Amino acid sequence: MSLTTPALxxxxxxxxxxxxxxxxxxTARAEVISLAGGxxxxxxxxxxxxxxAAEEALRDPSVLQYTESPGWPGLREVLAARESARIGRxxxxxxxxxxxxxxxxxxxxxxxLLDPGALVIVEDPAYVGALQVxxxxxxxxxxxxLDGDGMRLxxxxxxxxxxxRPAVVHTVxxxxxxxxxxxxxxxxxxxxxxxxxxxxxxxxxxxYGELWFDRPAPAPVASYSPQVIRLSSVSKxxxxxxxxxxxxxxxxxxxAVELLKQGADLCGSALTHRIAATLLAxxxxxxxxxxxxxxxxxxxxxxxxTATRAAFGDRIHCxxxxxxxxxxxxxxxxxxxxxxxxxxxxxGVAYVPGAAFAVSDAYRHSMRMCFTTADExxxxxxxxxxxxxxx
Amino acid sequence: MSLTTPALxxxxxxxxxxxxxxxxxxTARAEVISLAGGxxxxxxxxxxxxxxAAEEALRDPSVLQYTESPGWPGLREVLAARESARIGRxxxxxxxxxxxxxxxxxxxxxxxLLDPGALVIVEDPAYVGALQVxxxxxxxxxxxxLDGDGMRLxxxxxxxxxxxRPAVVHTVxxxxxxxxxxxxxxxxxxxxxxxxxxxxxxxxxxxYGELWFDRPAPAPVASYSPQVIRLSSVSKxxxxxxxxxxxxxxxxxxxAVELLKQGADLCGSALTHRIAATLLAxxxxxxxxxxxxxxxxxxxxxxxxTATRAAFGDRIHCxxxxxxxxxxxxxxxxxxxxxxxxxxxxxGVAYVPGAAFAVSDAYRHSMRMCFTTADExxxxxxxxxxxxxxx
Lengths: 391, 391
Fold this sequence. Notes:
Number of strands of chain A: 14
Oligomer: homodimer
Largest sheet of chain A: 8 strands, mixed
Structural class of chain A: alpha/beta
Largest interface: A-B, 79 and 79 residues
Order of helices and strands of chain A: HHEHHEHEHEEHEHEEEHHHEEHEEEH
Strand content of chain A: 5-15%
CATH class of the largest domain in chain A: Alpha Beta
Helix content of chain A: 40-55%
């Protein structure tokens, strides 16, 4: 008796347990300061508000029952209002679909939009969770590098001019994971134009947009075209364990995803959907809460960037950390971050080598550092430990 | 811009929005007594216990964070103990995998175990949610009819003797949905033997096993072989909105499912997993709670069966309703249940025609009636309304 080899081998070739995940096991030792994680800070999550919302929700027996596959209707209404304000046009409730975190939206969309061999354009370095599902769908993946303004649209245009016909272009538009950068307004508009001109879907993957430090994120790519599929989530602003992500997309995409969702897991949890709706609808409280999260992260980010630049000077180039959860740093002195890692762990600090996010470029001299879960002194100490390991 | 036609068409051919789902929309009218649903009774769900467990869980900030892909470890421990007792051998925690309802286990298993064209044996009439995912995986589906002792294993043996080599045999072993019957102990043992002899996986899908009315369900098929993959859920004994299902399976199956789960939705909710763990671990309370649910359902089931037999006599054959949520009835007088339905709706009663669950046989004279959400008087009234519609 065996697992059916071809099917499984095919799936798993796209779904290798990520290098990040394996690394995290090594960094769980208490004496290691880990910049390798990618988790929001649980201490900043609104535990008491969630408890109060849960108590209120549980006064109604219907919150325990199965709910509709596209999500508990009250949550979809709150999200439609929220996305309408964000995108700058009325988003009908039918175009809002709640998923089990935005990872499920990526997974279901890849089934709906991609045939084996279809071309998917991703960013380089890439969000690993998206790569996984696109690879599992049998897509052909071509990476376009990031620069300080996000995805290099000139290179995307070169690909299109050369006759490439992507089915999907995936972008983490705000405060990129792992790249730290944000797609510029001019490029957002151009990407939307290209998608309409060439008939590809843009998946605008935006879990970090609310976590801005100096100024709000630019208007979404979706604000330039109703054909853009936009994903977001409460995981980074409220709590991952609500397992509430969502997608705004044209109705025919939502209906196709709905049929797949029925087969995938029937429906989400009316209980956690209702908790999320209560907190998202309380906009005054929510604004204050998110302000606390992002100003805390901003302070941590600045401490990490300052310590990094002070320790390495010209030998490193790192992003400014204008939002989100990550700083991306490139050693300019030839330091190989994968080779460095064992010495770094010995010195008591962990990060993720750039290679873990590489698609075309090897990112051998790069690393991702997460600043969300440690205070400023700890982040500074992490760099103090890393510096002699680099030598 | 269009959805990629071949991929989507392929997926959707296996995932037509089910006849049941469409029908439920028609039966939502308040004046219709619906026996067409398939929901547990929300009024019997332990709302106060869930609220207390939620409050307790939310004292710990870690309950808001991402959790492990195979499930919150505390829940897996409780489930391992529970399944060990049920199956009659020690089930290690590694062999327990928590899914987003047992529908997700079916979906992920179909990806792990099935290549396109692989043979899957299902029961006829079939659980529609399983059919959906097997069809979506491109499986070839052959149905084996049920009789009063569950799946006709003699016919399965005929298929094996004829050279058929199934990858998977799927059975709803206890209080079948929709067929109402339970697989006999002798057939359970034989099915396990056949699976080992012929190298196919058995998926024992058991959401209803605890809802027995007269005597406990027989020992699981999994008790006869460690190769049997067993699925269960809290949806029918606690609440669907916890979205907690689970699978017990050999470690290599669990690890393959784990990789797919990471791509599908990363992880479940530590909050709802912890609530489920608290309630499942309180075995004295749980036993009393389940006793209340099953004795209430038993009373309702008997009222429905009694009314049906009184109204139709020899013109109908219906199951005894020894557990679960459904009665399956066959008209012996030639009544076509699909043709009857509009008249039944006009008379103020709804059921699901057998055709909705048909794989090989048409089940044109059959219907499924759910007895969980109405009291005895209402169930009796439903049959009083149905009787003149049949004529």
